[in-house]
Structure formats: structure tokens, C-alpha cells
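Hey L., structure's done. Input below.
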Amino acid sequence: MDKSFLTDIEELRRRARSHIEKGAVTEGYRADRATVLRLLNEALATEVVCVLRYKRHYYTASEIHAQAVAEEFLEHAGEEQQHADQIAERINQLGGEPDFNPEGLLGRSHSEYVEGDTGGWLSGRKVLLSTAWLSAVAPRKQALVVNLTKKRIEEAPPYDPDVKIPREYETQLHDHYGYPYTW
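Output:
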């Protein structure tokens, strides 16, 4: 066998080991790592908060179809946990630390609100509700269940889905529904 061929294979193996040891961040990685890690930790917080909320709904499901709804919440919690694990692994690959600190978790999360479509009831107007205010999900009706009257929702501060939610609007929304602030 040609000795130069063996040398080439040894060199290829050496280079491969060198690249593996460098991990996901190589000379060709052009993204701003600090920004990517911040965004990934925000996504991680979002997934963790979703897991907690789905678990809450799993344990508090009631009504006639409670068992089926509870099982669906548990399934969603498991899926969100898998997403969180994948994001945490990617953060590690990029040389960062996954931020599982409970302090400020909700502030780092982007899952606090859900947009509700009122259909024909409010002329197709969309409303914004905190996911913490949901009492159940009615999958067959494709509906969210909340302990709020139609009148209360009708009188809520107008919501524009095309505008980022400012803190002032959040304050008005929480005050209107009588729920405590989460920030």
C-alpha cells in the first residue's frame, strides 16, 4: 500500500478531530454569538414557561371531557420539554450556558399572551388574553375557555395584532380584567 495514502488518511483524521473539538463555532461561523445565545435563552424560557402552563392545565382539567383534554395538555407539555432540551443543547454547542434560573423566567419568555379570534361575535375583532387566564381548551370546538364574560371581553382595550405589545397596553389589559401584573 502506498505510504502517502496512509499519511493522507492520518492527516484527515487529525483535521477531523481538530474540527470536532472546536464544536459548533468554527472560523466560518459568522453570527454574533452573544445575540444568538440571548435569543436562544429567550426561546428556552418560552418553552419552559409553556411546559409549566401545560402542566398546570393538565392537573386542573375538569368538565365533561376532562380526561381527554388533560391527556392532550400532558402531550403538549412533553413536546415543549423536548423543544426546551433541544434549545439547551444548542446553547451548549455554541459555548453558552442555558439559563434555567426561575428568577426572571417569565420576563425572558415570549409566551405570555395568546391572540383570540372572536369570529363573527365581535365583527372578527381579535383580542389578547394572557395564557395564565385560560381555564381550558375545547379542542373539538377549537376554542379557548376563559372565566370572562363576553361583555368584559368586548370592553377590553382595543388590540392591534400588527403592533408590538407595549408595557402600557399590558398594564391596561391586566387592570381591565383585574389580574395581577406578571412583570
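The mean pLDDT is 81. DSSP finds six helices and four strands in the chain.

-- N.
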